[in-house]
Amino acid sequence: MRAAKQKQSGKTNTNILDNIADYFDSYGDRWIDVYQDEKERWYEYYPLRLREKYALLLTENENKGTAIDLGCGTGHALIQMKKMGFQRVIGVDISDSMLRSAEKLIGDNNLSDSIKLFKCDVQKLSMVQSNSIDVCTALGVIEYLEKDEPLLSEISRILKPNGVAIVQTRNYCCVRSRTVESFRKILPFYRSRISFRKHKPSSFRCKVEACGYTLECERYAHYYALYPLDIIPGIRTVIKPIDNFLNKKLERLSTNPLSLYFASMYIAKLRKVNVVNG
User: Fold this and answer.
1) Higher per-residue pLDDT: 138 or 185
2) CATH class in words for 4-272
3) pTM of this prediction?
4) What angle do helix axes 76-84 and 47-57 make, rounded to 10 degrees?
5) Which of the four pLDDT bands, split at 50, 70 and 90, describes residue 7?
6) Any alpha helices (H) in 109-159, and if so which ranges?
């Protein structure tokens, strides 16, 4: 099974997409490693697993027709969607490395005939018919794009009326993230290898409503129990096991409004109420 490819147009947009693809082709091992062992020990903490778990929980009572995962990465969520009962599952990514990992995982689970993979720009899903998708997930995707509206409009186009999208992005209001961002501006050690944006949940709410969605649910993930000790090299390594243990305990606060300031991930459940012309 090979991932189908779509042409990408627009010089600026293509450059951004190329940067995203190059980054995940080169540094995608952390996403692959997260799912190497299904067991999570007491001293391990995998926010990437948690955001997927939360997203799937938010869709468990939705229609089980067709689901699509934008930025599907290694394909773990695609397998879980099939196990949840979705009749058709589609995965989309821009990274060849991620798609190869997803293809292997799907093959290992004997699901090559029922899960389709595509390599393309998530803002231009021409292979997906309008009003054809029941559930769309986009976890850790929108922050790498130049603007929110193209992706939100394209998701609205492909969703059926009353369809659901789960979107996860970086939380601008997280105190720890703001501190690290300040360090990145002055210390090369902290600089990210890829450009990304953070979102203020309050501003994001306004955007999704303008794009024809109702915001049904919000939750947070990825805590920092021992901040600011966890940003100090050396100390961070020593405290990591107990920090991970405590961070998992803090996940119980994922629906608490105070998590706005203490969690780095923001997750929103959006329901399509109007058709938006992209």
Assistant:
1) 138
2) alpha beta
3) 0.92
4) 30
5) very low
6) 149-158
Q: What is the pLDDT of residues 57-75, one digit of tens each?
A: 999 999 999 999 999 999 9
DSSP character at residue 199: B
Label residues 205-243 b or e (16+ Cβ within 10 Å = b).
beebeebbbeeeebbbbbbbbbbeebeeeeeeeebeeeb
Report residue 12: phi and psi, to 5°: -65, -45
- Cα–Cα–Cα angle for 149, 153, 154, rounded to 5 degrees: 120
SS3 11: helix
Structure tokens at 232: 């100090």
* Tokens describing residue 126: 């021409």
User: Residue 267: which residues within 8 A CB-CB, separation 6 or more?
Assistant: 51, 54, 55, 58, 139, 166, 167, 168, 218, 219, 220, 221
* DSSP H stretches of helix in 1-69: 11-27, 29-33, 47-57
Map out the domains of the chain as residue ranges.
4-272
> Over pLDDT 90: what percentage of the chain?
79
Nearest residue to 261 via CA among 202, 189, 192, 183:
202
